[in-house]
Amino acid sequence: GAVVSQHPSRVICKSGTSVKIECRSLDFQATTMFWYRQFPKQSLMLMATSNEGSKATYEQGVEKDKFLINHASLTLSTLTVTSAHPEDSSFYICSARQGGKRETQYFGPGTRLLVL
Amino acid sequence: AQSVTQPDIHITVSEGASLELRCNYSYGATPYLFWYVQSPGQGLQLLLKYFSGDTLVQGIKGFEAEFKRSQSSFNLRKPSVHWSDAAEYFCAVGGSKETSGSRLTFGEGTQLTVNP
To answer: What residue in A sits closest to B107 (Cα-Cα)?
Structure first.
């Protein structure tokens, strides 16, 4: 149980285009999802917290107009990187919180974004 | 503010040897503690977690961790390492939705290499 999927797993795009990444909780409902960014050989950096039916909460330094987050349902959150540039190339990982008394985050397999 | 320190950036062990990965945390309340493992190009897989109760927790793949409040530590152990255990290991601290908004703070990770 507690499986989280991400799509696509890898994307290459031209500079200036927008890219959408989907994060789905497959076998549980997730009222909260999180988006992380990971640079090579580094830890995960939280970008934003996505709550179903409300606006996302962004971490300091993360541009909300650059990284658009939509959490339209209890099983789906999307991250759109708008007008992508080479410096946005990174590994993006989402997680979904399985709530209740014992809260645990389950992570997706990640999306490798390369902007040319 | 919560923080996690993994003192060892890289550890090398021989296959069949025992393993201990260190994790120290800073948290104002009773923490939720997690260990995740990440293979190259993949997302994070939950190994084990501690919320309360027995301070020695068992996880998947033969891993265990011990919560020591007096030392603010949550070290990960395995009695006999397998070559497939080679990966990056992340310790994380968080709390309930009420205390931390379910946010996780990750350590910098420990890269494990297993020699044949």
So the answer is: A43
